[in-house]
Amino acid sequence: MYVTSLSSKDTLRKLDGDFKQIECYFERFPDGEGYVRFDEKIKNIKEILIVQSLYYPQDEHIMQLFFMIDALKDLNIKINLIIPYMAYARQDKRFKDWESVSGISLAKMIDKFDIESKYTVDIHDMKVTKAMKGENLSAMPLIADYLTNLNLKEPVIISPDKGSVERAKIVADQMDAEFDHLEKTRISGDIVEIRPKEINTKGRDVAIVDDIISTGGTMAKACEVLKRKGTLKVLSGATHLLMISNAEERLIKAGIDGIFGTDSIPSKFSEITIAKIVEEVF
Ligand code: R5P
After folding, report:
1. Gap between the Cα atoms of 185 and 192, Å rounded
2. What tens digit of pLDDT does each residue of 237-266 get?
3. Which residues are marked as active site?
């Protein structure tokens, strides 16, 4: 399969030899407008996979995606698309009157293009993937592999809220470990309250697993609660490591013993590659 990307080139480099990369270039005009051009090898290609993650700067990565898709359509090339991190996905409903539901809007725009197959990875809410008539893939089996290799002590896998219970369960089942979730209430954009549940983690290691670590507020609170209960190591991980502003310091201050995640968003903690998921699908 031929494959191309602008924002996920690191992931592309980890794909096996069955994937042949077509270089795509991005530049900016002096007025700030973007410009996209493929390598001329594109001219002989009938079908391609775009892997384009829509992390920060989201709007630039979105426009790159649109320009890539449209240029490939002009060349009559069949397109498959994997969006490792879907921008705006947390705005998946109207929380207040008169606001835009940007996650669904973006998904609908993507759906307007004639694309053979479309995939998201650990989407925050399936409504968004459905709005683009796509399918969702999970990095949780890769996270389970990663945690298994750490030889944790009587590991407990914990979801920091009800939203990630299914994810934590996939990881726990594969590791043959116990799992549970905490009760989270979001007070504001970066402040959350976490109430402990009756989980016995005393003297055991815990991995908290979520779809996204953004400001780190959720994980920091969860860690404090678990450490108060006598938990040994607390590791914190997610598919998508946004790690906004001082998220890392916040987690360290809360006592987190390790941070892990995938390269859906490049970071120094992105040790798990989603290239393996791409290889399984194509
Ligand atoms: C929200 O429900 C998500 O699943 C994550 O829990 C959330 O995005 C994490 O955000 P933060 O790191 O800012 O607490």
Report:
1. 6
2. 999 999 998 999 999 999 999 999 999 999
3. 184
Dist. CA 102–CA 107, nearest whole Å: 8
Distance 134 CA to ligand 1 centre (A): 23
The pLDDT value given to residue 198: 66
- The residue nearest atom 5 of ligand 1, judged by CA position, is 212
pLDDT digits (tens, 9 = 90+) for 61-72: 999 999 999 999
Res 176 pLDDT > 80: yes
Residue 258: other Cβ atoms inside 10 A: 14
- Between helix 140-148 and helix 165-175 the angle, nearest 10°, is 40
Q: How far is CA 145 from the centre of its chain?
A: 17
| Best residue for ligand 1 mutational test, from 159, 166, 218 (most atoms within 8 Å of Cβ) | 218
Question: Which mutation among 210, 223, 236 tests ligand 1's pocket best, with the greatest number of atoms within 8 A of CB?
Answer: 210
What is the CA angle 72-4-116, rounded to 5?
55
pTM for this one?
0.94
Is there a cis peptide before residue 57, judged by omega within 30 degrees of 0?
A: yes
User: Which residue type, as a one-letter code, is found at position 128?
Assistant: V
The DSSP symbol for 18 reads T
Which residues touch 54 (CB under 8 Å, ≥6 apart)?
Answer: 7, 61, 62, 65, 83, 85, 86, 87, 106
pLDDT digits (tens, 9 = 90+) for 72-106: 999 999 999 999 999 999 999 999 999 999 999 99
User: Residue 121's CB: how many other CB atoms inside 10 A?
Assistant: 23
pLDDT at 196: 61
